[in-house]
Amino acid sequence: MVAAASIVVAAGTVSGVICATGEGPDASEARPVPSASPRPVPLPAVPSASPSATSATVSASPSVRPRRSSASASESPQAKKTTVSARLYRHPASRVIDWVRAHPGDPRRPVIESRIADQPAAVWFADWSPDTVTARVRAVTSGGAAEGRVPVVVPYAIPGRDCGGHSEGGAPDLEAYDDWIDRFAAGLGSGEVVVILEPDSVAQADCLSAGERAARFASLARAGRVFKEAGRRARVYYDAGHSGWHSPAKQADLLRRAGAASSASSDGVFSNVSNFHGTADEIAYDRAVLDALGGTHLGAVIDTSRNGNGAPADGEWCDPAGRTLGRAPTLSTGEPRIDAYLWVKLPGESDGCKGAPGTFSPSYAYDLAR
After folding, report:
1. Is 52 inside any structural domain?
2. Of 239, 286, 351, 367, which residue is the catalytic one?
3. 20 to 30 A Cα–Cα from 339, which one of 267, 280, 298, 366?
4. What is the pLDDT of residues 139-162, one digit of tens each?
């Protein structure tokens, strides 16, 4: 996965979304494509203007791990009804929106604006900033509530984040993290909100010792409980990696230890964040994880921001060529136990190869969009 930056009452964008910082400004599907989540029609190439990226620095989100074959899952007999509104919130600050506003004459602008900037995306909180995080979260959730729409927020400050890789950082220790989570929860409010809890924090936990892993999972279970208690209409999803990583059984075992099976802390799992695996593969994988995890209340959400062509055959994860936008963000998927297709990674923001992690590249965005 990887990062980005922008401003939300001092917000940025990470891993392809709006990331709130403490500083200033597919493959063929198993079912017919629901009308609520269309795929864009390809466009002809347009001569590129010289790209310019907004300057900002935000910690990168985790790198995708080596691909593994994933097991298929039979469809669960119990279809889960999504209880949240079908409308997602588009926060008015992101790097792609900044670029669109600053480049009215660029020939790529109409495509990037209509197919990326106008779509709702997640808002990342990738810095450990206890003094400001409550206000910044509240700015996003109150903005969504004012419009009657559902924001997607991503707390991303777990200690030992990314095992010291591209997206290293986070809180100094779990005690500080627990305090940050309390302050984050205080900004959730009473409206509907989807929480993507710490990408890679579960799937990537193998780098920790057994004791460190147990402590992390205890903090994640606590975080889910705190969010559910603070935000009565909050829906919390835990990290399930993606279909090319762990087996469903292994991932479910990790998730269970992190509290993801409990209705007191979890509404289900998320997968494919900042990755490229096809939607059909993720649906099958997520259902297999949910079946292994147990709990009929659980559902799954899938990051479809860049998975229109599926994952590269060579396993490349860093700004690979030939990728396209996937399903449009929606909370009405038409798929049992699949609660949403979300754009957690904002298309056009680099994984670290087309620029610094989180840097917006209009040429990359245009290639994905057309």
Report:
1. no
2. 351
3. 366
4. 999 999 999 999 999 999 999 998
